[in-house]
Amino acid sequence: MKRTFVLLLFLLSFGKAFSQVQVGVYHSGISSQIGVGTNIEKKFFGELRLWAPDRLDIDLGIEAIGQYNFYRSEWYNLHGGLMIGYYGDGTIGLPVGATIKPISSFQRFGLLMEATPYILGDELFLRANLGLRLRLGRD
What we know:
By secondary structure, the chain is mainly β. It has one helix and nine strands; from the N terminus they run αβββββββββ.
């Protein structure tokens, strides 16, 4: 499992070197996540999230997320994908969400709404995220 994470982290880092980067801050109830990823306007995009525990007894977590934009418009994107994480135990989930772009003159800013059913250990959880995204670089 750890080798898979190292490989995913390497692939996400390699992809970021050749595309725009987006950063995000997300909140899911009692904890927050910091995300760095590839351009969310592309058909496929990836993200690495740190400090992402949504349970109080876990101090630190890391997630690698690959997503596919099902629908892209000037005002919003609908996306879903696969999440693989590590919080002392491996976790896998299916994030589904929408990124809303409320400012027509500044399309780099987005509001994320996302739901992720995931398995951690032998338990099933559902996480809901709200957050802010900002795409860096030129259009």
